[in-house]
Write a structure and sequence with these properties.
Length: about 400
């Protein structure tokens, strides 16, 4: 019977009071305000992946029902109207142990079992994009000049922070090959789509950035790896998923990189047009980046890190920091070979997840990097203040 099943609140739930402003002509004509404010409640539950609006009665009911103990529907119905419980169950904010609701229960169990910190789960799931083009986002500055930004926002914060007048000058260091490499490192926005990346260069970047240097087994059944970047707890949870469209001898398509075997694992082969369209979708319409010969999706296996740092306030931040380390290594490895590289966080995570078959609660894209052969001409502006890459005419040095 319906009254015999049990309910509890979903494991992670935040409710945001969101203001809606409407033009109030009646109020304006009566001498009052021209705008009328209305507050609505928006529920953010990571296992849903989409926000839902709830009313005051539903909000109150969620506040009375705990996330841990199962309670019989009949008991809850004595204090909460059945129609309120039914709607919250349909929305997925209440979880049922009944068979018809098994799919939603499994999604909620995944959040619980992965040991997500609540704030991190909400930030991760609700900052993802799907089908977004940066050209449609006024906050992305692709088509606005620096003068436009200053006119609209005023001057930016100072480029330099100085704390007091006292100074202790430090000795300079002798320039080395590392200094030359760091000075040559720039973000590339101009790739030569007519050329193909040499297999040796492509493999060298992947090996230097992602490959395991060693595998050890400090405890039976526990294997750890050493890679070229620091990693929280030494867990190395970041994976490389690739969209290739210009590597000599490798068919265009989607691949996963095996960090221990130093090998590509084909996931789906694509024709050239499909690969190009998918690359543009991955980087949210940034066509100057989608032209790279190899796009690398840096994806985090959350449970690898959260296994040790369970429901930890810093665990998600550690993953983001690690992605930054990895991206810098991509820049340096590519620069040493005379290649261009980029990283962007303006990505369509939802489209990437769909393409590679990733569940964002288990394995989610953090950023997209790319590398390849630079174009001879600088058609899209790049930041090269040292003039290392381009001469005054915009030709590659």
């Amino acid at each position: 019977m319906q009254s015999e099943f049990r309910l509890r609140r979903c494991s992670v739930l935040f409710v945001e009071p969101r203001e809606t402003l409407d033009l109030d002509l009646a109020g304006l004509l009566a001498g009052g305000d021209a705008l009328a404010s209305r507050c609505r409640w928006v529920a953010l539950a990571p296992h849903l992946g989409a926000e839902v609006e709830i009313d005051d009665d539903e909000l109150a009911a969620l506040g009375r029902i705990g996330e841990t103990p199962w309670r019989r529907h009949s008991d809850l119905a004595s204090t909460t109207r059945p129609e309120v419980l039914a709607r919250l169950l349909d929305l997925g904010l209440l979880i049922s142990d009944a068979a018809p609701h098994e799919a939603m229960r499994r999604r909620d169990d995944l959040v619980r079992g992965t040991h997500w910190r609540a704030l991190s789960a909400v930030a991760h799931m609700f900052s993802r994009w799907r089908g977004t083009d940066v050209a449609d986002d006024a906050r992305i500055t692709r088509d606005r000049t620096l003068a436009d930004l200053v006119d609209e926002y005023g001057l930016p914060p100072p480029h330099r922070v100085q704390c007091g007048e006292a100074r202790i000058d430090l000795p300079d260091c002798e320039a080395t090959a590392l200094d030359r490499l760091l000075r040559s490192r720039t973000t590339c926005r101009n790739f030569d789509s007519r050329s193909e990346l040499a297999p040796a260069d492509f493999a060298a970047v992947l090996k230097r950035v992602f490959a395991s240097h060693a595998v050890s087994e400090p405890l039976a059944g526990v294997r750890v790896i050493k890679r070229a970047n620091p990693s929280g707890g030494g867990l190395h949870p970041l994976e490389a998923y690739l969209l290739l469209r210009g590597v000599q001898g490798v068919a265009a398509g989607l691949y996963h990189y095996d960090v221990v075997g130093h090998a590509l694992e084909p996931l789906a082969l694509l024709d050239a047009a499909t690969a190009t369209a998918l690359a543009e979708r991955f980087v949210a319409g940034q066509t100057y980046l989608s032209g790279a010969h190899a796009l690398v999706v840096i994806a985090a296996r959350f449970q690898r890190t959260f296994w040790k740092y369970r429901n930890h306030a810093k665990a998600y931040r550690v993953l983001l920091l690690e992605a930054g380390h990895v991206s810098q290594n991509i820049y340096l490895a590519a620069t040493e070979l005379g290649l261009g590289a980029f990283i962007t966080a303006a990505i369509n995570e939802g489209d990437i997840e769909q393409a590679f078959g990733l569940d964002p609660l288990e394995q989610g894209p953090i950023a997209v990097c790319g590398f390849g052969i630079r174009a001879r001409r600088c058609d899209v502006p790049e930041f090269d203040p040292l003039g290392v890459v381009w001469d005054e005419s915009g030709t590659q040095r």
